[in-house]
Amino acid sequence: MSSAAPAEPRTLAPQGTTGTIAVLLVAAFVVILNETVLNVALPHIMGDLHVDAATVQWVTTSFMLTMAVVIPTTGFLLQRFSTRAVFALAMGSFAAGTLLAALSPSFGVLIAARVIQAFGSAIMLPLLMTTILMLVPQQRRGVVMGNVSIVISVAPALGPTLSGLILAHFPWRTVFWFVLPIVLLALVIGLLRLRDVSERGSLTLDLLSVVLSVLGFGSLVQGLSVVGAAGSHAGTESGWLSTTAGGATVLALGVVLVALFVWRQIRLQRKDQPFLDLRTFRHRDFTVSVAVLALGMMALFGGVIVLPLYLQTGRGLDTLQTGLILLPGGLIMGLLGPLVGRLFDAFGPRPLAVPGAALLTLVMFGFSRLQSDTPVWWIVTLQISMSVGLALIFTPAFTSGLNPLPPQLYSHGSATLSTLQQVAGGAGTALLVGVLQAGTVIHGQADGTTVTDSIPGVHAAFVTATVIAAIVLVLTCFMRRSTPTELTRVGDDAAR
Phi/psi at 255 (nearest 5 deg)? Predict the structure, then answer.
């Protein structure tokens, strides 16, 4: 295997291509929905399984850590095994974890179930993106990647709302029983319909890379998580500082281990045997898009982390009410995806991403002016506008970043993008929540029990998000339309 020159693309017939992508879209939707569906259920789990608030957070933390550890391995998995085998591994693991969670008699069993779920979930998005790259010709990828944005945007937005509706009438385990039949149906259909579209090679698993990846990315995300949690839960300045110091230590260890992981991959690339091929960064458009996506994800967390803290801490809104306020933006972002994809295919990335980044910058500045009496309708308007801006950024960035890669780097490019999304999400949370808490502490209001008390911190967090969005605006000016390298793999049916 070599990435020095593009491999000869495999020619695939159009029959069944739409069905293949549709099955993967549904499967990815279900597993991504699962990332947020339990957020509302945590208080119910605390009471039923007799654990405290600090312990119950491991329901989400264990899922996030497993995702961070497994995603870097997907580049190897997708090149070593067939599409159907990887799909069966992903959905089979997710189904097993879902069933175990629904039956879990104790908190320890529930955590084990979440780890198994996360293992399958981590594989699905890279599998989906790699399959699209293999099946869809470059000039039609925008509209198909737009459909992916529905999965990425709508599923997390629906999670808390759907869970809240279920929990209003049924026990928390019902959330898993609700998901399980859909997962099993997607698994059966996928095994019957999926074809092998992967570019496989005789790769050797490098155990040192696995160890460095697991410890490095796990420590990185855990450190970011602890720093972010310190900002959102610490009640005193000393408690915040001590918790932050502990998280920073783990974070520093993660940075060192990830640096060693990168060094190891560079060594392995000389033998064409990397665990995660970083030659994707030799492609300018991929590198620019990675930067845009990572910083855009950090700015996004201003809306999905700081805004709910603002609404719930001072406005007295519960999780379901907060979810309903945030829901329109998530739905609109997803529904705009196919339209943005078509516009991308027609005009390229820059005419979409630059206005989107400009809008995102204005919205973050608008959020930085929030007060304790800001009307809810204005908050919803800003949140919807943020979603429009992100839709104009994310679909072009995903597509223009992956388009110039040769086929043998598709799986590694998808894995790299997904990995950096996880890390950027954690970094955005840690940075913005940390700034929020620092702003509150500096003003002598460390408890942050009301919006009036914490409003300086809210302002500081969104000013930081505004600066990040402004950097995204500059970077989008360097995005460009990729020259097609191959146009003959499938017919028009692939992009419908």
Answer: -60, -45
What is the distance, to the nearest Å, from the Cα of residue 128 to the centroid of all Cα atoms in its chain? Answer: 14
* 406/419 Cα distance (integer angstroms): 20
Burial (CB count within 10 angstroms: exposed 0-12, middle 13-18, buried 19+), residue 231: buried
pLDDT in tens, 23-32: 888 888 888 8
Query: At residue 363, what is the residue type?
Result: V
Q: Determine how many CB atoms are found less than 10 A away from the CB of residue 345.
A: 20
Whole-angstrom distance, CA of residue 24 vs CA of residue 40: 27
pLDDT digits (tens, 9 = 90+) for 426-477: 788 778 877 887 777 666 554 444 445 677 888 888 999 999 999 999 999 9
Cβ neighbours for 59, distance < 8 A, ≥ 6 positions apart: 38, 42, 45, 110, 111, 114
Q: Fold for 11-202, please state it.
A: Growth Hormone; Chain: A; (1.20.1250)
> 276-484, which class in CATH?
mainly alpha
* 8-state DSSP, 170: S
Cα atoms in the 13 Å half-sphere on the side-chain side of 349? 31
Tell me if domain 11-202 and domain 276-484 are identical in fold.
yes
Compute how many other C-beta atoms are within 10 angstroms of the C-beta atom of residue 22.
Answer: 14
The amino acid at residue 204 is T
Q: Name the token pair of 144.
A: 């198909």
Q: How many CA atoms lie within 13 A of 34 on its CB side?
A: 37
Q: Both tokens of residue 198?
A: 């992967």
CB 102 within 8 A of CB 54: no
Global pTM reads: 0.79
CA distance linking residue 21 with residue 18, whole number of Å: 5
- Alpha-carbon gap, residue 271 to 234, rounded angstroms: 49
Residues 238 and 200 sit within 8 Å (Cβ to Cβ): no
